[in-house]
Amino acid sequence: MNLPRRLRIALLLAPALTVVALFFGAGVVQAAAQSLGYQPYLDGWRWSTDAYVALWNDPAVRASFALTARVSMLSTVLAAVLGVALALLLRRLGRGRRWAAGLLQTDLAVPHLVGALCMLLLLGQSGLLSRLAQGVGMTAAPADFPGLTADGFGVAVIAEYVWKETPFIAVVALGALGRATAELEGAAAVLGARPWQRMRHVTLPLLAPAVLAGSVLVLAFTAGSYEVPLLLGRPYPATLPVVAYQLYRDTDLGSRPEAMAVAVVISALSLAVVAGYVALVARLARRSV
Length: 289
Known about the structure:
With 289 residues, the protein is mainly alpha-helical. 74% of the residues lie in helices and 0% in strands. It has one domain: MetI-like fold, CATH 1.10.3720. The model has no long low-confidence stretch (mean pLDDT 85).
């Protein structure tokens, strides 16, 4: 029996989507219910939006919004730019490209928590860079090295995300730099296009869809990850995931709705980013038709 193509795709994706909907969807529903006051284990609970009102009126949470936006956006932009540049560089290596790409992919297997510990040992005031600075006479003592960890701007957090996500974007970009791209670049060169013109009008437009999709994933991850800013950042102001973690671990169960409200806000922002990406792709597809 020949089924319609969309129905076949839906049936093939049904097992994976069922698992995702069961675990992720149930968690989101439970978090949303608790953010609205659903706490059957406490006497006198009631449905309300008090948790969201408290977050809106809390200056610390507003500072967390700004910090989260700065860290996630800067990390995503830097990772995208460096990843594309790295992919273009690897493409020119010729025979050494496969070896370099394999070395690049080893970074993907390193957990972010391990990367955060590496950044702590590298950028901390008692870390490797501070001791090297003292050794070459730039500082009198390791403590005189600029504080790059637990700082207000989030330098170490951004550095860890860029270090981890740049190879991911590079791998995505390398996948988009196939034979078709080389053929179009060659055709443009035959027509008299200079290297920068080929880069601007051929290579980068062909890379844009894949890199944009990867950047959306990076943005959503960096906005929702808590272990790196928890280890490398300040307790105040902290990123939104760290705020949610702190509220969740509070011994006062009355803080649980606020923790879940922060989690719901993070999920809503991530979904908004994905929805914006889907709308942009659909708009570009309509233009190309």
